[in-house]
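Following up on my earlier thread - several people asked me to post the actual chain instead of describing it. Fair enough. Here it is, all 1100 residues.
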Amino acid sequence: MDDVDLNSPNVEISDTHIHPWDMIRHGLSQELDTDQGLFQEVCQRAAQDLGPVFIQSVNNAHEFFEALHNNLSNDEVLVLDYLIALVKLVNLHSHQGSQPFENVLLKYRVKLTKHRDECARISRSKAEEFIGRTKDLQDVEEKLTGKKYQGVAICGLGGMGKTSLATEVCYRLQHARKIWHIKSIDMREKDDLIDLLRDMVGEIGLDCNSTEQNDLQSELCNGLKGIKTRTIFFMDNLDDMMNTAEKKKELLCFLEDFCQDLKSMGTEVRILMTLRQKLVPEKTLNESLSQKISRGAERLSGLMFEVELSKLKLLDGVNLFKACCRRPFTPAPENEVCQNIVNLCGGSPLAIKSVGAAVRSGKVIAEMLAKKLEDLPDLDVESNCLAQTFDTLDKSKQHLLAKLHVFGTAKFDLAFAAFVLGEKSMDEETPIVFGTSLNMIYLKSRHFVEVDDLQKEETDDIKTNSKSAKFSLHPLVYKFLLKIANQVEFEESVNEAKSLFVEYVEKKTNKIFEDFEKNCVKAWKELKDFKVHLKTYYELIQKSSPEFWNKGSRTVLTCKRVSEVADLFLEDYYKFRLLQKCIELSKGDERKFLETALWQIHLGKKFFESDRNEIAGEVLNCVLNETLHNISPDLSSDELGQLAEVAGAAFYLAGKLCIQDRKYIEAMHYLEDTEQLWGSKVEKAVGKKYKIDLALVYNSLGKVYANMTPQNLQKSKYNHFKAFLFAYRISDNFNNIDIPLYIQNIGRCSYREGLEFEKLNKKEQANQSFREAETYFRHAMKLFEHFKMEKFDSYAEVLRSLAYVEMKLRQMGLAEDNILKCYELRKKIMSPPHEAITLTVHDVATVRIERAIYLYWDYFENKRGDEYASINKLYEAIADYEHLMHLTKLGGLPRNHPEYPSMKRSHIWALTQVKETKKIEKAIQFYKDFESGNFEEKRKQKRSKKETTRFFYTYDQLQTMLAAGAFEGATVSACSSSESSSDSDDNVPESPKPPLVTDTPVTEDLVLRKTRLNFNYVFRQCPAKEKVRYGDTSSDDYFIEENFEGVNILDNFNACENLFDQVQKMECDEIDELAVGGSNESNRNYGNNSNSEPPTITRE
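Reply from S.P.:
Thanks for posting it. Predicted structure:
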């Protein structure tokens, strides 16, 4: 093939020289004319998209290109993209050898794109794309690159071309001018200012883990100071961030502050945004209803310039329509007809392009099209116009579009589209997406599908282009397709697409969670990018019928993953709805009883996490005594494995309930049962799939031992080490999401050791243990932040643990700061009544009382500080306890809770110190009423299943309502708390107990009925079959085997200590760089014998 040198003088941008596309066509024609068989195959496949008329007059490559250009698009790059996908599909090779013809075309695409760059550099835009927008294009570019404004906002109704205009400006400035760097942020799927800030911080190469707006703005401002190049933040589709007056006000305030910062810094950083609304406060809009807001004006105190795109002028609309429907050698429609069509389109560029594509297809003429539009109501102009183009598509393309509506307006990649359209299997290493690629390019030529213009930014890297390409539906196109999908004709295709969509999301979820166990940082990012599709998935479940839901082959492990992902993204109310719906759907098929049981277990788990242990126990009893009560002995080997998974999950939840209920011996038995089931040889795949879950079981066993006797403290620490090392061996460089939890619990063991040393009056050893605990807690915090888990309760718990150890080290200010952070986080993510919130308020009060005592002695003994500082701190603690009384009254604490005596005693003591007689009487009366059960009926009502599963507010939202008088007699304190207890004198509140200590007996037991599943019975019903598969299963210790293959470091406990000596000295970044492996090996296995004691931990 003759190569085309686009750098030669013959390819200059001039009307008198040869266009590069003509030279490319010449070279490609030579290639195609070489092999007539392959040429005919290419023509036949193209005819499937462009119609059989397409090939009737095509006899050679030259005529093929004429017909292709005539029927597809005037955009040469789009035509070339179509050819690339076409030759991939037919697997063409170059006549010069084995080189794929696709590679030949890719080289031409790079050259053609360079020509486009040159056109953009001299402001010669694509004729079809920006007719009527040339002035707007120049205005935006001039205002954006000038020194007067810090940014430009492009606003206007849907379909006016806001994103296309902004993208073209960015393309010119980055690729053609090559003087600006573009940071693109798409906000179509986001409505939170925090998301915008975090994306902006990430775009400049920083990683701020805070969830507070002030912290993110500060980090962004600091990062901007280091930018030395000209940079534009392109924020597309900000509409969702302005869907309420409050959100709009918040966004406008941020934009004004941000622009002011840019101006004061003197940096060459600009912002470009697209949105439908004007940058005018809602209040101003309401006051100006009678007068028009200026179309192009300064906004935000003159810091930004706003360009409003309105409908095209008649002449511009006519020119655009003619360009879109232009067919070579075919006369253009008459002006009168064109003007009529433009008026019927309402001057909307999207509508005009759509009807132009319909005429271009050759299946409808302009006069007929105008007549059709005149007969339609003008309530929805864009939909009317899209319908005309839709009618020109063949039935296969119409059904394809109906299927694509399942994506909504969210972006999706080619692999996802291919799966939903039924082209590929997700299990294939190299997905076959050629047909889908061809279809998507064709639909783009008909203006139904948008393609992410990130491709433009990476024209020199072809592989990156194909991977980064994202498709989406314009909101107006989606609105139209939603109506189409509801038609009976497309019902079967749409249901098939929904089913494949559900299957893809479930497989993707499984894959992401497998990655989560190894590298949660990478998986977390992938999960967040996939979040919008998960939302669609959950919505599909809510609308599903049992027939639709049960026709797939869903495993219990998939159900587990779906539930776990929902925990990360769904509010409690929606998670309860999801689980209840899944139970209802799976009950529709009796063969799905294991799936039903798994959903029920996760519903019980959700009640447990919501501090509704009684309801969780009821759900669990239902699983053990009803769903799994009459198990058929005639189970397949696959069903036996899934039964082990489900039973393990049930026993694990039972163990956690018993821990919460302080029934530690029974908890130990349940957890040991779980360990045996998930680590058994009944189904080796179960042990493999649940290896990371076994770490959680060992962690829970560590909690059990920690709460028994001091003599069991070594067993507790051993089990937490065991959990850590299980996760460590599976993960890449400590990047497992649960590892910070295990490190924190090892720190709690050190804290407990310090308390034991205190009892023996060994202060030096106690302080050493406390400092060791502090180190563990701080490393756990760093990992939580590294994993972006600052919004989770596990992060709040490590803050609370750190506060307690800081009190022991007399770092009172730090202790109060951390316990307040814990409280602030919990009130954002939890809804009262919740025991954790109530105890956190108690913790804040306890820390403040301890600090008051410290301030008192520091002033009177050391003559430092303020005389009234201790009194003020006591009053803060009293305010906390007044708030605590209200939370307790609402059901936040049971009467028999072990922390209740400490709460009552500390409250009365604080009131006594400040001599608040009236408040003392009021508090004593409250505690008498509480102990006598006067609030019990209200407590049960607030904690009922009905109240728990209905929509409710977070604690933060509820506080606002309380302050506004939503509940009579409610008082709200700006204070916080966590769990504590004390060793006391008569007049001084006790110092806090360790976070895990709860040694007060409880009388209000959660009753788990004693029915236990006899799995040995189930397996022994078919001993011959199972003996062949698993060996002898008759012995009682069949399930006792523990497999530590590949985790030899557990066998040497000193090696555990040595490893953690390394870990606790590392910074978070160093942990990431540590290579996995290098573990010491030995032969002992303490887990195989339940009576064996772990070796004593030695200290250096």
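The chain has a mean pLDDT of 76. That should answer part of your original question.
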